[in-house]
Amino acid sequence: MTNRLTTDFWVSAYLTRLRLADIPVFVTAKGDATAGVVMVKVNTLDGQAVVYQRSFDLMSGERAWVVLREGAEHEVDEAIAKQRNFDADLWVIEVEDKAGRHLLDQDGLS
Would you say residue 107 lies in a domain? Predict the structure, then answer.
């Protein structure tokens, strides 16, 4: 049996890691504390953005962060709004970093 972290716990740890790296981050939508899905929007502060969602690879059993949408920030926001209309338990975290850093590729965040 695998122990899974609650979404609330994972989000808290992620926010801490970003803040320790001096990367501004905000929770713009709080979802289900136990099992809500998380999307991470990276705003590069130049009118562009990308939103990541965690995906499960059925072949390998691995979880990976994949791009849901990227481009003009308003288009990314529209994609997020569609997902929020579909899933009220969805968390949305917004990272603001000109270099596009999100730390999702670091150990322990998949």
Answer: no
CA distance 83 to 4: 23
Residue with tokens 């709004």, as numbered in its chain: 81
When computed from its CA atoms, the radius of gyration of the chain, rounded to whole angstroms, is: 14
Higher pLDDT, 28 or 5: 28
Query: pLDDT tens digits, residue range 17-74?
Result: 999 999 999 999 999 999 889 999 999 999 999 999 988 777 777 788 999 999 999 9
Dist CA 38 CA 32 (whole Å) = 10
**Residue 27 is part of a domain; what is its CATH number?**
3.40.1530.20
